[in-house]
Design a protein that fits this description.
By secondary structure, the protein is of the alpha+beta class. The protein has a single domain, classed as Alpha-D-Glucose-1,6-Bisphosphate, Chain A, domain 4. 30% of the residues lie in helices and 34% in strands. The longest helix is centred in the last third of the chain and has 22 residues. The protein starts with a strand and ends in a 17-residue tail after the last helix.
């Protein structure tokens, strides 16, 4: 596991983008200076989730539907919805992830005790490569914010931090290696 302090996160790519055919998976492993129970609460409690990701409404039981409003604007398109596939409290959560204009993907979070802290393994599957690059930088930034929130702080400048790490995630899955974004050769055109 890797130190998830905001300073360490800026110096290291903590997420790994793995290509699968035309798609990709985003994978993170972070360790936080808290207990597994507190980390579970931080990723599932509406009051705590609001401090780093967005406003959670709905039902986090298996088969339940949820919504995460990523913006305070009522008509914002930055709202994710989905269904809970697995909720093994306080260890594992698997949900579908539906965002306007994208296909359905799957998000899995696993929480465990780790040394003097708690580990979070996050996998976002079923993304195309362009989405994986953006989600890689986005989850990187949000997971930094989770660490800040768990420590009692308030995150600042999300967009600036996202823009600083985005090139690192773009480099992991270059566009010229992406079948969906490849420019056809003259023979193929």
């Amino acid at each position: 596991m890797t130190d998830a302090s905001p300073n360490a996160a800026r110096a290291t790519i903590l997420g790994v983008l793995t290509p699968h055919g035309d798609g990709a998976t985003v994978h993170f492993e972070r360790t936080y200076a808290t207990s597994a129970a507190d980390l579970w609460s931080g990723i599932t409690s509406p009051d705590r989730l609001k401090g780093w990701l967005g406003t959670l409404t709905g039902d986090l039981t298996v088969g339940g539907r949820y919504r995460i409003a990523m913006s305070d604007e009522p008509d914002s398109e930055n709202n994710h919805t989905g269904e809970v596939l697995v909720c093994d409290e306080p260890r594992r959560l698997v949900v579908t992830w539906d965002f306007p204009g994208e296909g359905t993907s799957e998000l899995e979070a696993i929480v465990a005790e780790s040394g003097g802290g708690a580990a979070l393994v996050l996998d976002h599957r079923g993304l195309n490569r362009a989405q994986a690059r953006d989600y890689g930088a986005g989850w990187h930034t949000y997971l930094d914010d989770l660490g800040t929130a768990l420590a009692g702080g308030t995150a600042q400048d999300w967009n600036g931090r996202f823009e600083r790490v985005l090139p690192d995630y773009q480099a992991q899955l270059p566009k010229d290696e992406d079948p969906a974004e490849a420019t056809p050769s003259p023979e193929e055109a």
